[in-house]
Structure formats: C-alpha cells, structure tokens
C-alpha cells in the first residue's frame, strides 16, 4: 500500500518522545553472567595466536564492547571489525568521529565490513598479515602458519566473517554455523583455515558479554541488535524502544513497509495495526453478564516479533543506534 506523501511530511514535523522511560528495568536480568569460562579459555589460548580480530556491530560502534577483551587479550595486535555496515546509517562525519574516538582508545586498526557484501572484507586479511609480520611473535616465530582469534559479544557476525573470508580466499563454503540469534557458536576454540598463502587459521569463539552493562539504554541498544534473547527483555519493550528510536531519527520506513496510515509514537497502536495487517490475531474468551464470548484480539507479541525481525533484516532502512553518542563527540580538525 502506498503511503500518501503528506502523511510522511506531517510525521517529519511531529513532536516525538525526547526520552524513553528507563526506570525499574533490571539490566542484570537481561544479561545474566559474563561468560567468564569462555574468556578464561581465550586468555589461556593466547600463546596459540598472533593477532586478535574483534568483531562488533556497526550500528553500535561505541556502545557495548566488552572492556575485558582489551584488558585480558591486549598483549596481541588487535583489529576491530565493525560488521553489518549495510544495516548502519553511516555518514562521513560519523565515520570520522568513530575512528578518532577509537584511536583515542588505542585502536588504530579499524575496518568497516558487511558479510552480506564481501567487498570491504578484502581489507581484513592484508591488515592482519601486516600486523603479524610487523610484530614480535615470541615462541611462534618459527611457525609458518599464522593464527588469529576472532572475538566479540554475541550475534555480531563473527562466524559470518569467518565464512566470508573462506569464500574469498579459499572458494569454500560455510565452516561455522551462523544464525540471527545469540548463542549459535558454543564451542570454544574451533580452528578454521581461511587462507592458503600465507597459511592462515582463525579461532572461532563464543560471544562474551561485558560483566557490567553501563546503562539501561545501552542494554536496550544491545538487545535491539540481538545480543540477548528477546524474551529476556520483552518483545514489546524492545518494539517500543525501536519505535522511539525510528521516530526520533525521522526514519519512517515502517509506515511504508506495513502500509500504515501514518507514523505514530504509541507502540500499542502501531502493534495493533501491524497485527491486523499481517493477520496476527487470536481468539480470547471474555466473561460477560450473558456468558463467555469469543473476541478476536491483535496478537501484540507476534506483531512485536515481526517488527523486530523486519528491523534486523534491514527492511526498515539503515539505523545508527549510537547517534546521540556520536553527536556528543567533538570532531577533531584534520
């Protein structure tokens, strides 16, 4: 259904929520534990690797990275791959701010990639090779093969990156399982060849979250990117935060995608219309004075799940969830 242009123009001038109610939400319950066993295993395997490749989501380039990675694995050369750039609304000035901020933290090797479109993947292997050959390899100096450990929080595309590198350098298919939810990779230290010359292996690892999430809003950003299972936060809560974000950024692709009459800031109203549009309804018995009556009601959780799935697949357009963080950063003179 085509949405009238005046409806979107009106939406662009509407007053949207300036803040999202965060009180009373238990972030610790959303992110149970910090997966210490996996991190300890990674640290004990450092002697087997020449380089660390950290993968993170480009939609949250400055939020949610595990600080323990740098603390416990910082002895090795480090490459940060900001993946899923096809889903991120990356403007030139934002990219400059991201790179400047990360360089200030000591990360000078940053690559933006999309495993769906392998073009930028070509930058990864030459960068890793250069870092390995330019660093002191200690007891690995006599090893002809190179080995890098791929780390990151859950569901940022570590396995997809490995598979993309295999396709590019070996012409081979998937070596690791991939999926749209956290927890697909459970084995620690799966050793996978990705290149013949130089002979290069990658160690795939499970996602490891930070032991402490800085704020509820950061937790919501991480959850929107699929780093935890949706039911731990609540599908409708996540859908509401997504709606709040899209409207504040004036991204009204959801209106056109679902054929709605116009943009709206009330999540219950939006999910009701989405449920009706998709036929996601359910019969509910209601007790009245004359007995039980079957009433057709919208299935709000099902509508919320579809809303989240549509966003994560990129059908609502690219989004920068760290926009407010980036706006607060100064842009240094070149």
UniProtKB/TrEMBL annotation:
Keyword Membrane: yes
Biological processes annotated in GO: mitochondrial translation
MF terms (GO), sorted A to Z: GTP binding; GTPase activity
Domain of life: Eukaryota
Subcellular location(s) of the protein: Mitochondrion inner membrane
Classification via Pfam families: MMR_HSR1 (PF01926)
InterPro entries recorded: G_CP_dom (IPR030378), GTP-bd (IPR006073), GTP-bd_ortho_bundle_sf (IPR023179), GTPase_MTG1 (IPR016478), P-loop_NTPase (IPR027417)
Residue ranges the record marks as coiled coil: none
Domain named CP-type G: residues: 36-211
Binding site residues for GTP: 83-86, 155-160, 207
Record keyword Mitochondrion present: yes
Keywords for the protein's UniProt record, in alphabetical order: GTP-binding, Membrane, Mitochondrion, Mitochondrion inner membrane, Nucleotide-binding, Transit peptide
GO cellular component, one term: mitochondrial inner membrane
UniProt topology in membrane: Peripheral membrane protein
Record's function text: Plays a role in the regulation of the mitochondrial ribosome assembly and of translational activity. Displays mitochondrial GTPase activity.
Oligomer status and interactors: Associates with the mitochondrial ribosome large subunit; the association occurs in a GTP-dependent manner.
Family: Belongs to the TRAFAC class YlqF/YawG GTPase family. MTG1 subfamily.
Protein name, entry field: Mitochondrial GTPase 1
């Amino acid at each position: 259904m085509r949405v009238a242009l005046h409806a979107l123009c009106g939406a662009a001038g509407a007053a949207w929520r300036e803040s999202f109610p965060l009180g009373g939400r238990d972030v610790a319950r959303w992110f149970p534990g910090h997966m210490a066993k996996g991190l300890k295993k990674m640290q004990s395997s450092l002697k087997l690797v020449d380089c660390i490749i950290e993968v993170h989501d480009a939609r949250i380039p400055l939020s949610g990275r595990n600080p323990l990675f740098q603390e416990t694995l910082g002895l090795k050369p480090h490459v940060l791959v900001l993946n899923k750039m096809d889903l991120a609304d990356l403007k030139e000035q934002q990219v400059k701010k991201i790179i400047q901020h990360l360089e200030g933290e000591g990360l000078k090797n940053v690559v933006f990639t999309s495993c769906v479109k392998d073009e930028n993947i070509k930058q990864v292997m030459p960068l890793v090779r250069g870092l390995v050959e330019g660093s002191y390899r200690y007891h690995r100096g006599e090893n002809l093969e190179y080995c890098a450990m791929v780390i990151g929080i859950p569901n940022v595309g570590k396995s997809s990156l490995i598979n993309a590198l295999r396709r590019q350098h070996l012409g081979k298919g998937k070596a690791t399982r991939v999926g749209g939810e956290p927890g697909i990779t459970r084995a620690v230290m799966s050793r996978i060849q990705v290149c013949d010359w130089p002979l290069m292996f990658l160690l795939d690892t499970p996602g490891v979250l930070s032991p402490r999430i800085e704020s509820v809003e950061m937790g919501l950003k991480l959850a929107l990117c699929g780093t935890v299972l949706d039911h731990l936060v609540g599908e409708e809560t996540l859908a509401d935060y997504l709606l709040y974000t899209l409207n504040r950024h004036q991204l009204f692709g959801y209106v056109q995608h679902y054929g709605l009459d116009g943009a709206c800031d009330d999540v219950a109203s939006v999910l009701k219309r989405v449920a009706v549009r998709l036929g996601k309804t359910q019969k509910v018995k209601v007790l009245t004075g004359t007995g039980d009556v079957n009433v057709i009601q919208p299935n709000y959780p099902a509508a919320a799940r579809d809303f989240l799935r549509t966003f994560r697949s990129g059908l609502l357009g690219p989004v920068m969830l760290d926009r407010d963080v980036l706006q607060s950063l100064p842009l240094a003179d070149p």
